[in-house]
Amino acid sequence: MSESNTKKVLIVEDDKDFSYLLEQSFNNQGMDMSYAHDGEEGLALAEKINPDLIMIDILMPKMDGIEMARQVRAKGISSKIIFLTNFKDLDHISQAIEVAGEADYIVKADMHLADIVKRAKDKLGVK
Length: 127
Fold this sequence. Notes:
This protein is α/β, with parallel strands linked by helices. The chain is built from 5 helices and 5 strands.
């Protein structure tokens, strides 16, 4: 794979502070980053840019992350998905995985930002 084949990552996160911290953490990682602050905006961007990876918060205004993932799949977008959330309950985890298939699930409070970046890179097969 050539260097020009930059991976596209879409982060859909309504917490602007956390989104900013993620943006800073992904800086200089050689990925093409896009950001949305709610599920509707995220879905529109996913359709437009067809990202390699979508990182989706579950609890968001306008459209929650599980519904956004459901609609992403319904539109035939095959992006890899990582759910970002503070939910630890099995109901949310099982709903998210049922909708998105091979999705990862990160509990934000349990991981450092560098670990979130590493999980994204691992999911994309990027060093």
